[in-house]
Design goal:
Blueprint lengths: L10 H9 L8 E3 L6 E3 L9 E2 L2 E2 L12
Antiparallel strand pairs: 1-2, 3-4
């Protein structure tokens, strides 16, 4: 015997349930080394530093003006 709802839920009740299901903004902070915005508790993508230490080497992209 399957579990089926005994009564229909109203649209307001359905909306209240779905109101908590939403996307949240990722917390960002500025990198203390280069000042670029970065995700908290992650290595900075622009300079490669984490907690004042260089963790990864980041290639410098050369911008050519044509």
């Amino acid at each position: 015997m399957s579990q089926e709802p005994k009564k229909r839920h109203s649209r307001a009740r359905q909306g209240k349930r779905r109101a908590s299901i939403k996307m949240t903004i990722i917390g960002t902070v500025t990198c203390p080394n280069c000042g670029a915005p970065q995700i908290t508790h992650r290595v900075c993508e622009t300079c490669g530093y984490y907690k004042g230490k260089q963790v990864i080497k980041v290639k410098q992209t050369s911008v050519s003006k044509a």
